[in-house]
Design brief:
This protein is mainly alpha-helical. Helix content is 61%, strand content 0%. It has three helices and no strands.
Length: 97
């Protein structure tokens, strides 16, 4: 059994090859190529996090903490809606005067 010593990994008398690797990673996922699709997915996740924040607010013992969580949830919803509307506007091709 050979050890992991580099001299056992390379054939005797040969030098390490500088050829490109035989395998490479590829992706057929179109969503990874379109930044707008990725951004829309992140906006959707932000909407889900807003729902989580509302749930935490409902279970909070402190009224101040609950209100802060509700405010954060509302800001998250607003940001997600703004991102979505901006992407839809850009995709529509309308020009801004």
């Amino acid at each position: 059994m050979c050890s992991r010593d580099p001299k056992n990994l390379v054939g005797r008398g040969s030098t390490p090859s500088t050829k490109s690797p035989l395998l490479r990673l590829v992706s057929d996922n179109q969503a990874s190529r379109d930044p707008a699709i990725r951004l829309l997915a992140l906006a959707e996740r932000l909407q889900l996090k807003a729902v989580d924040l509302d749930g935490y607010a409902d279970r909070s013992q402190s009224e101040t903490a609950a209100q802060n969580l509700r405010d954060a949830a509302e800001l998250s919803r607003n940001l997600a809606a703004n991102i979505t509307s901006q992407i839809e506007f850009i995709r529509s091709g309308k020009c801004v005067p």
